[in-house]
Design a protein that fits this description.
GO terms for molecular function: transmembrane transporter activity. By secondary structure, the chain is mainly alpha-helical. The chain has 18 helices and no strands. The protein has one domain: Up-down Bundle (Growth Hormone, Chain: A), CATH 1.20.1250.20.
Amino acid sequence: MSEQREQSLVRAVGGTYFPLALVARLPYAMVVVGVLTLVVAGRGSLALGGLNSAMVGIGAATCGPLLGAAVDRFGQRRVLLAVSVASTAALGAMAWVVYSPLPDAAVLAVAFLVGATAPQIAPLSRSRLVAIISAYVVPGRRVRVLNSTMAYESAADEIVFIVGPVVAGVLAVAVDPWAPVVAAAALTLVFVSAFALHPSAATAQASAGRTPAAGSVRELARPRVVVIVVGILGVGLFFGSMLTSLTAFMADHGRPEEAGLVYAAMGVGSAALALGVALFPVGFTSAARWLVFGGVMLTGALALPGVSSVTGMVLALLVIGLGIGPTLVTQYGLGARRSPVGRSATVMTLLGSAVILGQSLASAITGNVAERWGTDAALLLPAAAALVVVVAGAVNARIGESSTAGGTPIPEPALAEVGR
């Protein structure tokens, strides 16, 4: 391996890559809160807002893995350029249709398109960086570089998770409820396209061309992969039920438009410990991390029905975040380890789609519960979602780490830091 190929990852991908990938993540983080806020404000129904969020998730869950498979076959550049244009158009249509005289069914159809065209930059960034590290970093340094890179990726996700709802909330309050969706459309067109055209996309594609032929699609259905999908679906269910029940909670306090700002508090604790995963001892296995931090999520969620003030809710969300960050880091890390050969982008987008689907389905269910039985009943649902995470973690612990899902075994520390 030449001296040039022993250069730092930052030099290999270019100094503009990481800030560009960070901003390109932002639109979807804004859309999650933006669509819910837009529909509730424009159509006057929390249940319909939750149902539209569900349609976004169904669209993403249906088409996200297909996007990943297309990337594995054709490369990120061509696929993302097409997706960025389609996503921009769908978001623009969403901002218009909510205030149009068209029926609710039309709003739901556009919401599906918003999800179907979601670029999913976070999993594709991980896939791109793993390919480049595998090709351009000497084996002796590869584990350390993967550790630090995936820890950064996790922190970047958490930063966007914090900033996205805040930006959406500020725009909704300062301008209008349609503003977050329109801003997301503009950011998608500019920054997702720039991410697609970045030279690192060609570098990663060239690296991928040197790997063995892609594994069978059937390998994606093996229990060792499915259990991760179910576990991360539980996290998505938690996000959706938490955001929607929090919106009802804030509405009871006369400040529903601030739900996104309060929700962002959960990301603070999440980001704090997500980076810390890189410092955990090797003996603290992925199976143990999943169970321990999933348990933290469940414990915090069980306390939610007893919260009576906005300040108390912020504190509860900070604690819950301490469990969410490491749980997602661990789940994505297992996904990277167990990806069949040549199916990295497919697996990463599958996991990302599971989060989105869970979030959206839970939003619809929780919105309906809140309208029928009130906020107290809705605040019980995050605990049910956290229980799904813990149960999946227990199943994962039983499955063990004896083999991979058809790919090449990678030492756990190498990919333990892959985050949400």
